[in-house]
Amino acid sequence: MILLTRTQRAQLLANGRQSDVDHVPVVKFYNPLGAGVWLATELDEDGDIMFGLADIGYPELGSWCFGELEAIRLPFGMGIERDVLFTGLFPISVWAEAARMAGSIRAAEQILSARFRGDAARTLNPADTESRKA
């Protein structure tokens, strides 16, 4: 699997040039066989050092080497994967706070997803949900 699309790489590099901004995560990587989730918001100009929220037992903000992430080999010939359905929705500071409170990025994702669905439901007007007869 390709871990970064060209579009994601371009967005991460652009975010890296604006380091004082609370960016929304661009991509989520995960270990399909166990612990390990990474939400990347920035990529250094060297194309190898990423910044974001990492959780390999405890969620914390920091940097990691993309090349090392790509090089991880798991049983059955598997490696780290990119969550192709991931959408960040919230700034990394919100993710970090939710992950610390919940204990992991995976638990935070459930909480933030429910929060997003709740906010979306509250923005609907009754007329948006009623059946219309032709």
UniProtKB/TrEMBL annotation:
Protein name: DUF2958 domain-containing protein
A Pfam family reported for this protein in Swiss-Prot or TrEMBL: DUF2958
Organism field: Paracoccus albicereus
InterPro entries per record: DUF2958
Lineage: Bacteria, Pseudomonadati, Pseudomonadota, Alphaproteobacteria, Rhodobacterales
